[in-house]
Amino acid sequence: MAIDSDYFRGKNVVVTGAASGVGLALIEELLGFGAAKAVLADFNRDNLERHTARLEQSYPGQVKGVLCDVTSESQVTDLIEQAAEFSSGRIDLLINNAGAGFGGCFVEPSTETEIVKIMPVVSTEDWRTAFDLNFYGAMYGCRAVIPIMQAQGGGQIINVISGIAFVPMAYQSRYAATKAALNGLTLSLRYEFWDDQIKVSSATPGTTATAIWGDLEIPETAQTAQQSAQRILAGAVKNDRVIFGDDADVSGANQCFSTDPEIMIGLDEYLLNVARQRRTGKIAV
Ligand SMILES: NC(=O)c1ccc[n+]([C@@H]2O[C@H](COP(=O)([O-])OP(=O)(O)OC[C@H]3O[C@@H](n4cnc5c(N)ncnc54)[C@H](O)[C@@H]3O)[C@@H](O)[C@H]2O)c1
After folding, report:
1. Domain with residues 5-279, CATH architecture
2. Does the beta carbon of 210 sit less than 6 angstroms from any atom of ligand 1?
3. For position 215, what pLDDT does the model report?
């Protein structure tokens, strides 16, 4: 994908969930595009130390790893303070990327199915855990960085959502709800801070081969984390309102709010088929 790589030259960037997958690829691309300082935040100490040390070899003095659990507001506030200190007070781009997939049955299924073995019934506490990571983690990041960006006269924030925000699949109600909520927060903040020259966008990575899939089979159509990162950054350059990480996400979003009866019926059929296949133990997408 063609990208105006000069856009990122000299910028100070922070990415959460940066010790793996899409977050790590975003950091690598940003450094490759000439970012001045890059802060990797993650709660996986081993991966964080390993990748920070590796990148430090190629970009001496430009990289910092901060151990941070984004479900803790004080840790996120501390992350942003440490990042600002590392980057001479200026943060140009924050990507709130840390997140997880969160499958599960909403309540006990009415009939015996395979899905409960793969995705057990979740509790209200499990719902809070999902919101703590996928929603509040990003919300804390926005709260902490916006005052810095206001004071410096602008900046950019990208909150990583998922195509599931537009195509909510069965047995992933927590994932769909947390990412749709994050999209709502993001697009509202976009206009609240537009006149402060702070660009705010949502980004779906598209179906991407990363550790997020765990033991589940990764779909054949999955792209690499680098491809996903490049597409997200191309959208960042254009300040797209919602950045779509692959073409399937574009089509899902277009269909989501369509009032065309044929499209509405087609989407129902597709999502019902996914639910029924999942009940047989096949994690269809
Ligand atoms: N891979 C996909 O197909 C896909 C599709 C749609 C959306 N996404 C979204 O992309 C983002 C990145 O996911 P990925 O696919 O790279 O997965 P990944 O598992 O490879 O990376 C997620 C990273 O977040 C970190 N993390 C998890 N909880 C954390 C916490 N509490 N505090 C700090 N860091 C934490 C993990 O340690 C990991 O390094 C997520 O928000 C995910 O929901 C991924």
Report:
1. 3-Layer(aba) Sandwich (3.40)
2. yes
3. 87
Cβ 202 under 6 angstroms from ligand 1: no
Residue in 46, 80, 210, 228 to alter for ligand 1 test, most ligand atoms within 8 A of Cβ = 210
Task: Order the strands of the 12-16 sheet from edge to edge.
Answer: 63-67, 37-42, 12-16, 93-96, 155-160, 198-204, 242-244
- Residues in the chain predicted with pLDDT less than 70, given as ranges, are 1-2
Closest atom of ligand 1 to 98 CA is: 24
CA-CA distance, 64 to 55, in Å (whole number)? 9
Name the H helices within the chain. Answer: 21-32, 45-58, 73-86, 115-118, 124-131, 137-152, 173-192, 225-237, 247-256, 261-279
pTM of the predicted model, to two decimals? 0.97
Determine the distance separating the centroid of ligand 1 and the alpha carbon of 17, expressed in angstroms.
Answer: 6
